């Protein structure tokens, strides 16, 4: 369960202050898959970064499984997995195995535990043949597999994805979506941002819409469809933005 | 956990070709290059022909005097000054006609020496000529005084002598000291440079830093692991520089080899130098960490770090004209000055435990301050996240 209470975040630049996120409040139940929608610059990534402990809120509080992120960040980090899109956060000159081993140690996994887990993930993602090659030579899709493996290496309860399918071909994108479905079956709580409405439609049970740092909707897909009398997320999203409604 | 970060960073760095080039190959080539050319320069110094032209009517006796000079070749030409201006000779000597006859008749004939003082070789040649002529003049004077039954000391009440204290006559030790300081300091700084820009700015650029910060890894462990990696590469490069420097001087030079003699106090020399390299590497690595944290891309980091090489040259040039006897406590307490001063002292055979302790102590203080600054920056998201 994720609780976000009146969270704001400002960035100070030389001549003025940018309010990236404004008093967002919402609750994400355990085991739910939430789509985070918004235009570029709306504050999605900032919100994800705050939830994943990288950025501190300017005000407000965030709890994950009852633990205050700001007060006990180490405890929270142990239970979350994060994958931010674009770059994959991998070391090009290390092999896939070495990358995974490096990160595993930070989660306190023993060598044996790490080895077993890596073999399991390699099998699951079909990358056994690539484990001992350097990541720098990998294709985009293969890199994504290693990055995802790294993200769920320590079996986190909560997983954050930021535009995870950006730049992926159809095969890799489908693989990711299949992964999300499996993780859902395992009872994981997932929050991911995307610009691809079909993806959100297929995978998510509920939606958070953000516009100019403010939340303009939070709730289930079905309720949103009823309120808007439409199942076209693109249409709904644009309507909400035009109206500027607050949730 | 610091060890875990450290091992991974070292492995990563050594797989980077830039690290190999800058930490290993470049120091070796740099050493060999400058020593080879300088040694060749010194060797050729003693062999250069000194071409001198004199006027056609110059007296044979005077010409014979000058030909006694080492490497001096005399040629008679119609217009000596013109010959020098045209670059055909280094020095022109105009000798009055009937020089010896007039000398014997108690007249005062002239010898005029022309040389372009902006030329090192011409200056050396003209000094040589003037020296020879001075000796001859004094001999004539002595002979005349003897004929008049006058003691030489009557007109020469005291002698003035100049003796050097540097202890090495041909300047080889001076040359070695100059290059040793340059080679070691440059080696340490070049060795740490590629890792410095890569481990902080580079990680920000590639988003691996953000991935790290989301794990339970302690920030202190991360920054210490990276700092020690940068310092280690600097140390390795520094040691490589010393080893290749000594080996090349021993086996690759002609004139410098005799001057480099550390067999008397090898242990102290080696130990003191290693301590100096270690503390200097740690200090430089700290500064590099701060600069790399400020930058958001590797290119930007390189732009901040590269000028450090130039800044490091300032104390080098300030100390270049300071003799080992002039070094004071202050020189050993100011970082960057202290490493140069220590190396110079060791090269000249001055072994002082106090100097080494001052160098280590002052460096540690500055390291503590700089590291604290770096760690404070590393705990702020502004400095550890790249631009979004």
Automatic annotation (TrEMBL), chain A:
Alphabetical list of InterPro entries matching this protein: AAA+_ATPase, ABC_transporter-like_ATP-bd, ABC_transporter-like_CS, ABC_transporter_ATP-binding, P-loop_NTPase
An MF annotation (GO) of this entry: ATP binding
Domain of life, per lineage: Bacteria
Domain ABC transporter: 2-237
PROSITE patterns: ABC_TRANSPORTER_1 (PS00211), ABC_TRANSPORTER_2 (PS50893)
Keywords assigned by UniProt, alphabetized: ATP-binding, Nucleotide-binding, Transport
Record family assignment: Belongs to the ABC transporter superfamily.
Name of the protein this chain belongs to: Sodium transport system ATP-binding protein
Taxonomic path: Bacteria, Bacillati, Bacillota, Bacilli, Bacillales
Automatic annotation (TrEMBL), chain B:
Alphabetical UniProt keywords: Membrane, Transmembrane, Transmembrane helix
The UniProt record lists the keyword Ribosomal protein: no
Residue stretches making up the ABC-2 type transporter transmembrane domain: 17-374
Keyword Ubl conjugation on entry: no
Location in or out of the cell: Membrane
Topology class, membrane: Multi-pass membrane protein
Pfam families with a match to the protein in the record: ABC2_membrane_3
Spans through the membrane: 20-42, 173-201, 222-248, 268-295, 316-343, 355-378
Name this protein carries in UniProt: Sodium transport system permease protein
Annotated organism of origin: Priestia iocasae
């Amino acid at each position: 369960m994720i609780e976000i209470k009146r969270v704001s975040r400002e960035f100070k630049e030389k001549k003025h202050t940018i309010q990236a996120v404004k008093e967002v409040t919402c609750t994400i139940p355990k085991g739910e898959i939430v789509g985070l929608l918004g235009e570029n610059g709306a504050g999605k990534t900032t919100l994800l970064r705050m939830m994943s402990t990288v950025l501190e809120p300017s005000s407000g509080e965030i709890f994950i499984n009852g633990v205050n992120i700001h007060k006990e960040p180490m405890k929270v980090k142990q239970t979350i997995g994060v994958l931010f899109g674009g770059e994959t956060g991998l070391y090009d000159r290390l092999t896939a195995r070495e990358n995974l081993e490096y990160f595993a140690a930070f989660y306190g996994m023993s060598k044996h535990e790490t080895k077993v887990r890596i073999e399991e993930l390699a099998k699951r993602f079909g990358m056994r043949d690539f484990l001992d090659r350097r990541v720098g030579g990998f294709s985009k899709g293969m890199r994504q597999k290693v990055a995802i493996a790294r993200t769920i290496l320590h079996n986190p309860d909560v997983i954050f994805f930021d535009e995870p399918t950006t730049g992926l071909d159809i095969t890799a994108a489908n693989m990711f979506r299949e992964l999300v479905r499996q993780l859902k079956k395992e009872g994981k709580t997932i929050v991911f941002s995307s610009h691809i409405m079909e993806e959100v439609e297929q995978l998510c049970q509920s939606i958070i819409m953000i516009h100019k740092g403010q939340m303009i909707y939070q709730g289930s897909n079905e309720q949103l469809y009823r309120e808007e009398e439409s199942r076209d997320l693109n249409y709904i999203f644009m309507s909400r933005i035009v109206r500027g409604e607050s949730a | 956990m610091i060890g875990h970060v450290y091992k991974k960073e070292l492995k990563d760095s050594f797989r980077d070709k830039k690290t190999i080039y800058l930490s290993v190959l470049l120091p070796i080539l740099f050493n060999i290059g400058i020593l080879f050319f300088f040694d060749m320069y010194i060797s050729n110094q003693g062999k250069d022909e000194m071409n001198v032209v004199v006027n056609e009517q110059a007296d044979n006796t005077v010409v014979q005097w000058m030909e006694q000079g080492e490497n001096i070749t005399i040629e008679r030409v119609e217009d000596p000054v013109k010959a020098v201006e045209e670059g055909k000779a280094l020095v022109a000597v105009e000798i009055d006609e009937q020089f010896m006859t007039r000398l014997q008749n108690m007249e005062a004939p002239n010898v005029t020496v022309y040389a372009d003082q902006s030329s090192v070789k011409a200056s050396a040649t003209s000094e040589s000529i003037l020296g020879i002529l001075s000796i001859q003049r004094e001999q004539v004077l002595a002979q005349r005084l003897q004929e008049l039954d006058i003691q030489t000391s009557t007109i020469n009440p005291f002698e003035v002598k100049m003796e050097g204290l540097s202890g090495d006559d041909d300047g080889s030790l001076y040359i070695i000291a100059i290059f040793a300081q340059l080679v070691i300091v440059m080696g340490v700084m070049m060795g740490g440079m590629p890792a410095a820009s890569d481990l902080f700015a580079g990680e920000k650029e590639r988003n691996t830093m953000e991935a790290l910060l989301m794990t339970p890894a302690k920030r202190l462990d991360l920054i210490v692991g990276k700092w020690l990696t940068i310092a280690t590469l600097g140390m390795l490069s520094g040691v490589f520089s010393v080893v290749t420097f000594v080996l090349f001087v021993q086996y690759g030079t002609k004139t410098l080899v005799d001057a480099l003699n550390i067999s008397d106090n090898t242990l102290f020399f080696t130990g003191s130098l290693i301590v100096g390299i270690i503390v200097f590497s740690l200090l430089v690595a700290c500064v590099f960490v701060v600069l790399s944290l400020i930058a958001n891309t590797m290119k930007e980091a390189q732009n901040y770090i590269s000028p450090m090489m130039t800044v490091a040259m300032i104390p080098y040039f300030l100390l270049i004209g300071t003799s080992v006897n002039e070094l004071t406590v202050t020189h050993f307490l100011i970082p960057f000055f202290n490493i140069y001063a220590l190396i110079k002292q060791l090269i000249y055979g001055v072994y002082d435990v106090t100097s080494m302790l001052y160098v280590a102590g002052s460096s540690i203080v500055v390291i503590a301050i700089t590291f604290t600054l770096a760690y404070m920056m590393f705990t702020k998201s502004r400095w550890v996240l790249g631009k979004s």
